[in-house]
Amino acid sequence: MIINHKDALSFILDNPENYLNINLYKLEELHHLISKELPITKGIRKSMVGITGTNYRPLDNEFEIKEVLEKLFLYLNKEGNPVGKALVAVAMISYIQPFEDGNKRVARMLGNAILLANDLIPVSFVGIDNLEYKKAVILFYEQNSIAYLKELFIEQYALAVNKYF
User: Fold this and answer.
1) What is the CATH number of the domain that holds 74?
2) pLDDT of residue 126
3) What is the pLDDT of residues 19-42, one digit of tens each?
């Protein structure tokens, strides 16, 4: 998994302009890089997935998933604030759960791709408390409140800025 993250980040760093506009192909490309050589089915999932620790159940129809993703891409491609765009990408890809596995990893990588495409530094998420991150995501899943996830995202972004600049 670590090597896959490195490879995905290297790919983004070599092609940051690819993420100024987001589409299904680019999302699936990131998923492929993140899940390379792992026993994970590639492409948009065709069955139900469960998420540990929550009662939230994502869409289970491949066509509905693609339709919702297309609406997300339209929004992301119109959003002018790259940090807001990255936060929405992280939250919504995690929420939609388009893949069998690796959704939150792909979501965070896409968020960083958006930041890098706009000449901003990426968020490492290394300093984040895993339980707090899970709480923030579950709060978003179950109550549609992005507030805590936004707080953590901004906190991690500030840590990255302070550490590297």
Assistant:
1) 1.10.3290.10
2) 81
3) 999 999 999 999 999 999 999 999
Q: How far apart are the first and last CA of the chain?
A: 28
Q: Which of 50, 17, 46, 45 is nearest to 31 (CA)?
A: 45
- Least Cα distance to 123 among 133, 131, 113, 132 occurs for 113
Domain range for 77 is 2-164
Three-class SS of the chain: CHHHHHHHHHHHHHCHHHHCCCCHHHHHHHHHHHCCCCCCCCCCCCCCCCCCCCCCCCCCCHHHHHHHHHHHHHHHHHCCCHHHHHHHHHHHHHHHCCCCCCHHHHHHHHHHHHHHHCCCCCCCCCCCCHHHHHHHHHHHHHHCCCHHHHHHHHHHHHHHHHHHC
* Amino acid at residue number 152: L
Q: Rounded mean pLDDT of 134-141?
A: 94
Number of structural domains found in the chain: 1
Per-residue confidence at 51, pLDDT binned at 50, 70, 90? Answer: confident
Quick check: 136 pLDDT over 90? Answer: yes
Token pair for 159: 């840590």
3-state secondary structure string across 68-84: HHHHHHHHHHHCCCHHH
